[in-house]
Amino acid sequence: METFKFKTNINCGNCVKAVTPHLNKLEGIQEWTVDTNNPNKVLEVKADSADAQEIKSTVERAGFEAELI
């Protein structure tokens, strides 16, 4: 399993709700969290088969930015 971290603009509970169905549908993700208290709004994803580009694209399709850190 690999852990990816992204700097995002997912900054509140409603934003997390908006991205949830997109990330939950992505195959290969075991779990994910967004630290909205962190100034970089860090999305941490634990994946066994999804790669960083797939995750980034999924977040962007949900209407948010994601930059691998």
Explain what this protein looks like in three dimensions.
The chain has helices at residues 13-25, 52-61; strands at 2-8, 29-35, 42-47, 66-68. Strand 2 (29-35) and strand 3 (42-47) form a beta hairpin. It is built from 2 helices and 4 strands. The chain is an alpha+beta fold. It has a single domain (2-68), classed as 2-Layer Sandwich (Alpha-Beta Plaits). The protein has a 4-stranded antiparallel beta sheet with strand order 2-3-1-4, with helices on one face.
Assign the CATH architecture: 2-Layer Sandwich
- Provide the CATH top-level class: Alpha Beta
Structural class: alpha+beta
| Main sheet characteristics | 4 strands, antiparallel
| Whole-number tally of structural domains | 1
Question: Helix proportion of residues, in percent?
Answer: 25-40%
**Percentage of residues in DSSP E strands:** 25-35%
Q: N-to-C SSE series?
A: EHEEHE
Report Rg. Answer: 11 Å
Domain HMA: 1-67
Protein name: Heavy-metal-associated domain-containing protein
GO molecular function: metal ion binding
Pfam families: HMA
Give short descriptive properties of this protein:
4-stranded antiparallel beta sheet, HMA_dom, Alpha-Beta Plaits, 69 residues, globular, Heavy-metal-associated domain-containing protein, metal ion binding, 2 helices, HMA_dom_sf, 33% helix, 4 strands, alpha+beta
